Amino acid sequence: MNKQEWIQQVEKYDQLANDIRMQLWENPEVAGEEKFASALYRKVLVENGFTITEVPDMPYAFVAEYGQGSPVIAVLGEYDALPNSSQKVSAVKEEVNAGGNGHGCGHNILGAAALAGTLAAKDMIEANKLTGTIRFYGCPEEETLIGKVKMIKAGMFDGCDVALSWHPMSTNQVYENSYLANNSIKFKFYGVASHAGFAPHLGRSALDAVELMNVGANYLREHIIDQARVHYTTNSAGFPPNIVHPYADVWYYVRAPHRSDVNEITERLTDVAKGAALMAGVTMEVEKISGTHEAKGVPTMTDLAYKNLVEVGAPKFNTEEMAFAEELQGTLTDFQITNDLKLIGKRREDNPVLHQEVCSMEINRTCTINASSDSGDVSMIMPMALFTTACWPVGAPAHSWQATASTGHSIAHTGAMTAAKVISGMIHDMLEDPSMVVKMKEEHAATHDTYVNPLD
Questions:
Q1: Domains of the chain: total
Q2: pTM for the model
Q3: pLDDT tens-digit profile of 356-379?
Q4: Three-state secondary structure along the chain?
Q5: Does residue 336 lie in a domain region?
């Protein structure tokens, strides 16, 4: 097998990946509503000889498989968008649709690149009559941090040896350990309605409990580990001031480097909620929406991803892409840009607009993404690679309007095709030398605890 030919096979799917990228960008669907996206991926995969397996009770999730025998390699694809993130391909903040959805996390290109790399690998397996199986995972509901957790619970990852994952970002790097473990919890308070002026003493305010809980959570933040995050939102409105609120709720995320940290903080936060309910004289119930593990890698997998990212090379952007990126970066603060550069060992005076290098292994082994993903749970049940490529300007955070503008621009496609080639190259190496898969699995077994699904 000529590896260069193998990687270049990805170019065959350049237009297809770009078409999918734009179709999803123009039809952004939030978590749990990915009807158009999942149907599009299914259609392309069936046309290319893959067998589709549906996921029980998840209409927009699927597994597409090609080949036979070991190793069995999973490629993770995501395609959900973000609510209230609509943005034109413009360096000025301007919605396509007021209050509409948008791909501010780049999942329109995440799945498209994963697909291109998978299809190229399938072609080479077929042409060279190789033993090995590739599975493309259509993964909905990532933004609500639950899709892959549900799929694991349904047994859809059974029989897999390793998994490959990438994410659009502002840098080109590999992460050995990344993503924070997470709990998503809603605290619901039930009070007694009354006239707030005429008979407030007869009412018990659920909204008071929400406010008291948020105050308590602020004090809790002082006494948890530095790396933890506790943040919330509430839509507890709808009652005028002259009605004592009979119902209110607050939705919290608890994040930390390890699942055990998240569980411990969640218990304490729940006690805060109980205390708030007691003070307000209301009742309370807890709805656990989802939970995830941190992403934890193994050195052999990290090394393989880094080797292929170096071999493929950082994305090469054209003049028009650089000009648009410079306009977008001009809308960011100096702090945003400087903070991003610190993570990759650069200074503000280095002044990169689009990252066009590959981060060193020293950075790769220590840098983390202080967000959460259900991909972390996949890394707990098998060796998983996670890498990023530059798909928006340095300094632009994911979930920003600048990121959404980029994912509708060719900047994102250029970065995505680099990712597709890395995925295809990694599949090549593992099929050529299956012993490295054995080594990855041994490392994983030695360093990972028994997996407990957060939904159990």
A1: 2
A2: 0.95
A3: 999 998 888 888 888 999 999 999
A4: CCHHHHHHHHHHHHHHHHHHHHHHHHCCCECCCCHHHHHHHHHHHHHCCCEEEEECCEEEEEEEEEEECCCEEEEEEECCEECCCCCCCCCCCCCCCCCCCECCCCHHHHHHHHHHHHHHHHHHHHHHCCCEEEEEEEECCCCCCCHHHHHHHCCCCCCCCEEEEEEEECCCEECCEECCEEEEEEEEEECECCECCCCHHHCECHHHHHHHHHHHHHHHHCCCCCCCEEEEECCCCCCCCCECCCEEEEEEEEEECCHHHHHHHHHHHHHHHHHHHHHHCCEEEEEEEEEECCEECCHHHHHHHHHHHHHHCCCCCCHHHHHHHHHHHCCCCHHHHHHHHHHCCCCHHHCCCCCCCCCCHHHHHHCCCCCCCCHHHHHHHCCEEEEEEECCCCCCCCCCHHHHHHHCCHHHHHHHHHHHHHHHHHHHHHHHCCHHHHHHHHHHHHHCCCCCCCCC
A5: yes
